[in-house]
TrEMBL record:
UniProt GO BP: auxin-activated signaling pathway
Sequence similarity: Belongs to the tetraspanin (TM4SF) family.
Pfam families noted in UniProt: Tetraspanin
Family annotation (InterPro entries): TET_plant, Tetraspanin/Peripherin
Spans traversing the lipid bilayer: 43-63, 70-94, 231-251
Signal peptide: 1-27
Taxonomic source organism: Glycine max (Soybean)
GO CC terms: plasma membrane; plasmodesma
Protein name: Tetraspanin-11
Alphabetical list of PANTHER family matching this protein: TETRASPANIN-8-RELATED
Amino acid sequence: MFRINNTLVGILHTLPLLLSIAAMGDSAYIRVHGDCQKVLQYPLLFGGLFIFVISTLGLVGVLCRVNAALYLYLLATFFVILAFSPFTIVALFVTRNNAPDRAGPSVGYGVGDFSPWLQHYVTDQRNWDVAQSCLVQKRVCHGLAVDANNNDSLAFKRLTTTQIGCCKPPLRCGFTKKNATFWEAPKAGPLANDTDCRTWSNRQDKLCFNCDSCKGGVLANIRSQWRHLTIFNACVLVLVTIIYVLGCYAIRNNRLEYSNYTTQRKIRMRIPSTVI
C-alpha cells in the first residue's frame, strides 16, 4: 500500500514556511525602500504572517505526530485555499489591459488603458492628492536628465513608468528640451490640443503631476505590482494545495501507526506466559 513518510511531508512543509519568511522580508523592504505606491506591502506582510503560522502548525503536527495540530492546520489551509482562489481571480481581472500594451518613452500610458477598479484610484481626487504629494516629496523627477547628459533616448530608457508620465511633457505636445529642468513649448502652441499639454509646467513641484499621462504611469506601476502579487498568490495556492493533500496522508499515516501499535500491544498481552 502506498504511504508517504512523515519526515518527507515535514520537509515539504518547510517550503511554504520559507516562502512566508521571504514574503514578510519583501514587505519590510518595500516599507523602507519602496516608492509611493506600496501596493504589495500589506498583502505580503499579512499573507506571509498567516502562512508562517499555519505552516509551523502543520510542521509540528507532522513531525511530532500530533493529529490535533494537523486537523487545525488542515482546516486553516482549507480556508487559505478558499481565500486565495477568488483573490487570484480578482487580481487577474484588475490587472487586465483595457488597451494593448504601449508603454515606453515615446508614448506612455493613459488612464483609459486600465481596468475601472484601477482607474478609480486616480479619478478619486483625495487618492490622487495623496499620491501627488508623495511624488513631490520623494522627488521622483529630481536630476533624471542630468545623468544622461541631456540625451533623451538614453535618459528615458532608464525611467520608470511613473517618471515617464510625470517628469516630462508628453511627446505628442512637441515641446523642446532646453536643459535638464526646462522644456519650451512651440511658438505656435502645443502640437496636440489636449489637457496634458496645457497642464505641463516647468516648476519642479508641478511638472506633469496633474496630467493624465502621470496618472497612467502611476497605474502602470501599480498594475505591475499587482501582477507580481498575482504570481505570488498562484505559487502559494499551488504549494498549499499540494501540502494540504500531503497533510491528509500524514494524518492517515499517524492513524495507521497508532492502529498497528495498539494491535501489537493487544497481541502481546494475549500471549500466555510460557512455563519452563
